[in-house]
User: Which sequence fits this backbone?
């Protein structure tokens, strides 16, 4: 027997042994069922809606201020529409002829690099013929403030970690007179501790998107600005010489292996991991480094993906005499271990594409993107991305709320609650359709994604993925009346089905994926409709980087055959041969922690349906009192995601997770809605 066949046979044997160990006297130890299948009975069908005095409901959040409720939030002017505090320009007759959007997009101040003078808007517009001149924006990590520079014509001390950094910025601008005008937040926004400065920041922070978009380029000054450019250039050469031309990994193993340290140093620079620099990454048209080369973020992302792939499939191994990296594990599922910042999500351009198409980026997508980034104050997690939001998501801001950590956390939570309330009261239900656990929330607030929940938005690596992002739900609406009160969100929903069976909590990795497929095979063999979960698993194969594009269809067909196998032996043989557990580990909506296989029954159908749900491990389904619910008012067959709830009171339910909707079920659902309270 050749080595490949021997390895495959060993895999089949191991998988078969694993499957047999999970069977307990003919029943499936992974799954729990109700003692007897019962007819579908909508839990609220016989209860009177008169118990809900909707007119009496009001929003009284724990940190709400007068006028800060959802009705007020929905009607508030956006931050972009705020009165321009501190900006008082007297216009002459010529200036009155300017287009209105010039002042709206023109920076309040620009720095004249040739003369080393800060000029206000009125002054520089007069010099440039009342047009916004070409200007450079500077993106730099403030870092630990060790110096307060006093610069001519600037009325406040300029906080900076190293004065040499300012010399580097100015040297780039003055070299060959390449830059006349420059905008930098520390210089062009009043940084003094005064009410006037706070008022100015409240106006300027939401406008920063105009400044970064309107600039000719963005000068990136990394934390390690002296060594970063050379390391970046080495990675560009590596990409051009090897990755982009598909050169042999084995033939170039020494160079590729030793370049791990270079890549680690570059992507580990603080510029990639600060909250405030994220919009500075997304908004500008071009990024340049102090030595003049273009910063190739797209190339760095592709390099990360490439390294993950060649380490995972075993193409790259430590060459003889190579450097020892304690965070590199070739051939393993977790090839890059914590705490290395080798996640690629913050280098991806999907957000930039969304920004270019819509002019803004969805709030919850941004929160997920910046969850692992660092900031001096908690409230910066929202203030630092405010320029990326749409007007309908913005609420008035108060930059002075960041005087200390505790008050900043309170300001962050208050701002977040007002944003969520504004979204819900406008009929947008995406805050309900994302995976967001907060078991320690106060009663009445479990329905709301909590921005300060521990580990809420962590990525799969490092640690467990506690939350999921589902962009397909961003446009879902519920046009029926909703109210926010102390006891929760009062909302009209459609009951999809009652959960009759569930698996144990399922984690991450190939072994855990085997549990999912094993449950699916068992439930298929016992007459359940497993089409929903099988389609999701097939989608996982299609999105896994462990399945080549020309192998996707064949893998999907083989998985379907395995899950419909007539015997445990046949199922085990097919699963072991194809190594589906490992392939599914890297599939979208499959990988990650906090999964459960759910078996549920819908009204008028005795055959249970099977889905793979996201259920947080701290909130298991309550058998018999667990329901799958549609929180939209849209045609049921168009809905993309449902929520999973436990009944906790006469008309009160608590969200414990979400599940991918299956359109054929939506087409046969009872379309009537019932009012409930989501606590």
Assistant:
């Amino acid at each position: 027997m050749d080595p490949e066949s021997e390895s495959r046979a060993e895999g089949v044997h191991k998988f078969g042994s694993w499957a047999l160990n999970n069977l307990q006297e003919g029943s499936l130890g992974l799954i729990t069922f109700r003692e007897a299948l019962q007819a579908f009975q909508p839990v609220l069908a016989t209860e009177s809606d008169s118990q809900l005095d909707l007119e009496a409901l009001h929003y009284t959040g724990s940190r709400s201020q007068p006028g800060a409720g959802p009705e007020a939030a929905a009607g508030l002017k956006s931050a972009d529409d705020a009165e321009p505090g501190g900006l008082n320009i007297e216009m002459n007759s010529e200036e009155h002829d300017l287009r209105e959007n010039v002042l709206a997009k023109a920076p309040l101040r620009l720095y004249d690099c040739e003369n080393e003078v800060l000029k206000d808007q009125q002054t520089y517009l007069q010099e440039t013929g009342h047009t916004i001149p070409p200007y450079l924006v500077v993106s730099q990590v403030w870092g630990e403030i060790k110096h307060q520079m006093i610069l001519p014509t600037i009325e406040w001390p300029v906080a900076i970690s190293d004065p040499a950094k300012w010399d580097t910025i100015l040297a780039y601008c003055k070299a060959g007179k390449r830059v006349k005008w420059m905008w930098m937040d520390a210089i062009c926004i009043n940084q003094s501790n005064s009410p006037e400065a706070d008022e100015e920041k409240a106006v300027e922070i939401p406008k920063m998107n105009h400044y970064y978009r309107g600039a000719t380029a963005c000068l990136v000054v990394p934390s390690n600005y002296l060594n970063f450019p050379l390391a970046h250039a080495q990675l560009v050469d590596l990409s051009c010489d090897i990755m982009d031309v598909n050169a042999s990994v084995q033939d170039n193993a020494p160079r590729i292996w030793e370049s791990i340290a270079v890549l680690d140093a570059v992507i580990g620079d603080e510029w990639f991991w600060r909250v405030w620099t994220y919009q500075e990454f997304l908004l500008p048209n071009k990024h340049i480094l102090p030595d003049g080369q273009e910063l190739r973020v797209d190339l760095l992302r592709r390099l990360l993906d490439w390294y993950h792939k060649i380490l995972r499939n075993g193409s790259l191994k430590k060459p003889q005499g190579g450097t020892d990296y304690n965070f590199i594990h070739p051939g393993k599922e977790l090839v890059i271990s914590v705490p290395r910042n080798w996640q690629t999500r913050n280098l991806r351009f999907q957000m930039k594409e969304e920004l270019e198409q819509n002019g803004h980026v969805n709030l919850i997508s941004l929160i997920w993107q910046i969850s692992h980034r660092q900031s001096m104050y908690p409230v910066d997690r929202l203030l630092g991305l405010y320029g990326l939001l749409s007007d309908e998501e913005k609420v008035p801001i108060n930059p002075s709320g960041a005087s200390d950590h505790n008050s900043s956390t309170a300001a962050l939570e208050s701002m977040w609650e007002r944003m969520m309330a504004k979204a819900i009261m406008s009929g947008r239900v995406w805050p309900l359709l994302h995976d967001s656990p907060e078991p320690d929330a106060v009663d009445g607030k479990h329905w709301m994604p909590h921005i300060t929940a521990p580990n809420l938005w962590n990525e799969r690596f490092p640690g467990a993925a506690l939350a999921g992002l589902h962009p397909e739900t961003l446009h879902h609406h519920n046009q029926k009346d909703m109210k926010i009160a102390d006891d929760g969100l009062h909302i009209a929903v459609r009951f999809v089905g009652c959960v009759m069976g569930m698996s144990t909590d399922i984690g991450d990795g190939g072994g855990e994926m085997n549990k999912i497929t094993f449950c699916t095979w068992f439930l298929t063999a016992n007459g359940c409709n497993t089409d929903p979960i099988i389609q999701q698993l097939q989608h996982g194969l299609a999105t896994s980087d462990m399945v080549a594009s020309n192998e996707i269809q064949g893998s999907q067909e083989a998985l379907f055959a395995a899950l419909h196998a007539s015997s445990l032996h046949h199922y085990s043989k097919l699963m072991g041969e194809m190594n589906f557990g490992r392939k599914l580990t890297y599939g979208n909506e499959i990988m990650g922690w906090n999964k459960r296989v759910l078996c549920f029954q819908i009204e008028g159908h005795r055959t249970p349906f099977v889905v793979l749900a996201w259920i947080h491990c701290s909130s298991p389904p309550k058998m018999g009192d667990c329901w799958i619910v549609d929180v939209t008012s849209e045609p049921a067959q168009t809905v993309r995601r449902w929520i999973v709830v436990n009944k906790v009171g006469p008309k009160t339910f608590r969200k414990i997770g979400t599940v991918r909707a299956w359109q054929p079920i939506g087409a046969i659902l009872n379309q009537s809605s019932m009012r409930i309270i989501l606590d």
